[in-house]
Amino acid sequence: MRCKPVARRLRNMACVAVLSVTGLCFTASVFAQDGNMIKIGVVSPQSGANSRYGAYALKGAALAVNEVNAAGGVLGKKLDLVQGDSQCVPAEGVSATQRMIRFDNVSIIIGDVCSSVTLAMQPVVEQAGVLLLNAASSNPEITYRAGVGGYKWTFRNYPTDESRAAAALEYAAKKGYTKFAVLSVDTDFGRGAITFTKKYLQRYKAQIVSEDYYKETETDFRPVLSKIKYSGAQAILMYGLADTTPIVARQMHEMALGGKIELVGNAEFTNPSTIAAAPDVMNGAIETVAWLPSWPDPRSLKFVDDYKKAYGDLPNVHAYTHWESVHLLADAISNAGSAKTADVRAALAKIRYESVMGPVTFDDHQQAVVPIVLLEVVGGKAVNKGVLSSRVDYSAH
After folding, report:
1. Based on the domain organization, do 113 and 42 belong to the same domain?
2. Phi-psi group of 85: left, alpha or beta (phi > 0 → left; psi -120 to 50 → alpha; rest → beta)
3. What average pLDDT does the segment 132-137 reach?
4. What's the structural domain count of the chain?
5. Is-above-0.85 flag for pTM?
């Protein structure tokens, strides 16, 4: 990689990366992990409206770091977790990433929960030659831009909105639903999932009869639910916030929509507290998930138990994916026999990692082909309707 010219030449250093704001070049030896520590950065929202999700991510990563270190570390070195707060704002995420690279000498970063932040991070890590492993954001564009798409330093260990939306739509169509209303959060996540759902509607001769998006702070859904009630929709496509779903469910119950219009998508429908908010509404809800706390794998159940002991609450999917991604990185470093970023990147590209959900490999866009679970709420409980592959259909892009 070429570096932009700098005012002062740094003697005896091969210039390999550029930080877009400072314009300074650093050598691989600066980014290489030194001493007895291997630094892994986590960029996530630790403040702001999405701080709850960032807290889960950081706790999951921290638990994994403690586990790896307790087992002797990697290559005789301990993992050191460095955190950065994105606030779920792209500019803040970029600043956190740049600080992490320049001042903390971090060369491996896990980030971000928010897709808009991860998209903004991609060119930064690409310039710097720093490895970015995403463990939570789901915008498909991240994958289309990575690997053979251009950004060779970006990997993702999480299903995309496109693969999840396609799976949920296919199952809903098999149940006979062909008319859908949209009620999704007004973010890259909510809008992106619907955009990619639309690509597959014609496969099932389905249509969207009503389309609305809500703000993160919104609490009154009665007007839009009234519109949906008379739209002819059989189901609502909903990609949104965990805190919002119980509110929507209760208001649907008030309007006697339980059992008449189902929910399809991803908004923590299968969370026990969400189901309890309005069981008649949540019964029949269809959701695709990357993981759930009740998954009957011994290592997964141990993770849930350890997390509860450490933090006093139940982990969500972001806690799990960050925990698993730290272990994935530890395996890649071990396989590489080196903590140098180029070596870890090469090892990650060809890894076959046994996650609690099943084997994980990466395609040529450096998107993990991970198992996803199709769930339906039946009798007040989440019922597993099958484990699917999340392999991306790039020809549909």
Report:
1. yes
2. beta
3. 96
4. 2
5. no
